[in-house]
Amino acid sequence: MRIKKDMKLADVIQMNYMLIPVIHRFGIKLGFGDKTVADVCDENKVDLNFFLQLVNAYHDKDYFPKEELQSIPVREIVNYLKMTHASYLNNTLSEIEQKIELLQSERNEDKKYIPLIRNFFDGYKNELTEHIIYEENTVFPYVLAVEEIIKTQNKNPKNLEMFQSFSIKKYAEGHENVEEKLMDLKIIMIKYLTPPVNITLYHMIIQDLFKLEEDLNYHSRIEDKVLTPKIALMEKAIQNLFQI
Amino acid sequence: MTRYTVIIAEYSCLIRNGLRSILEKLENVDVIQSIQQKEDVCEIVDQLKPDILIVNPNMLPDEYIDVEKSFFQTKNISIILISEDSNVKDKYQADEYIDFQDNQNIIFDKVQHIIHQKIELIPSKHKSNETLSAREKNILKHVALGLTNKEIADQLFISIHTVVTHRKNITQKLGIKSVSGLTVYAILNNLISMDEVK
Predict the structure, then answer these.
(1) Structure ipTM over 0.85, yes or no
(2) Whole-model pTM?
(3) Chains A, B: CB contacts under 8 A, how many?
(4) Which domains are delineated in chain B?
């Protein structure tokens, strides 16, 4: 179902609870009563059009934005993606890590296998962190430069150099295998590990991993379906404009 | 189990969504996207690289008849047409066609038939529930110890190509892709001990 501006935000959340962290990243707090999406966006100074595109892309697998693409500033998208990154690094990953540590510190647990899981998760965390740093230090500055060239119709040497040093295609091609380790960890915990004594905690960790994976999938959908095609269009426009 | 990705391209939302809900009953099929506009077909197919494209022939690119399947950059894509005309299959060199009159079981059969063809083409794709062979365990041990394909090939006196094939089969059977994941598996199954890992 397509989410529209005059729907109640509470109904939207009821439809898909995975949107709770999404609205949180926009600074929207729960407890909004019967207010509509438009009201809440207005109160929180959130760009309504962008918000709708974003929640629809999160919510509906078939959502493939086309004409609306032009209207969202790249800066808005990048800001949102950065907020998401921060929430992974500061909250999600460390919460899972804490749970694994907790499991490790329990007295009657098997001392052999838990460190394996912990090392593995550390490895995954480093990989994801590296990927995020790559996006923030290489990809985002690039897409912002592309937007600026389009906006000012002027290629100053700094932006031009940036434009020629990278292309969004390069980014899109390398964007597939980031979740490999996360999926492996789930498989190992489900298929191959004898569960520890504290089974509740163990189950919670697995469920957290599933939620993280789902959220990351949504997140990369924004990168792949909204940001990447938009930048690809802009790249073409710049090439035509300056005959590069 | 290996799941096959499907894209449905069709103008009519009744057919598009109807087909989707039918296919969702199959356990080895994932409908990853549906497309309602002709202009989007090539771009989305090339981007998402599905195993199977189920498409209304009128939504195929106009040049399609001349260049056959090479129009899509995606390799090994199977094309199923949606049509009431049994001639379209040959006309477009498609793999299969679904008639509007087909009932659910016939649609299942047609899609499964395509999947079986794919399995025969890539035999390694369906060896999922088997245990590792002694040879594979040996290879896995070396992988887990952090050796490269070249080093493994040299040590075991086999070609790199053989090592790669074994690794593919190991990943297929265990469902684990990353080297560190395979290492954990190897330790859990006593193929290597924890202190052997660098």
Answers:
(1) no
(2) 0.74
(3) 50
(4) 4-121 (3.40.50.2300), 128-196 (1.10.10.10)
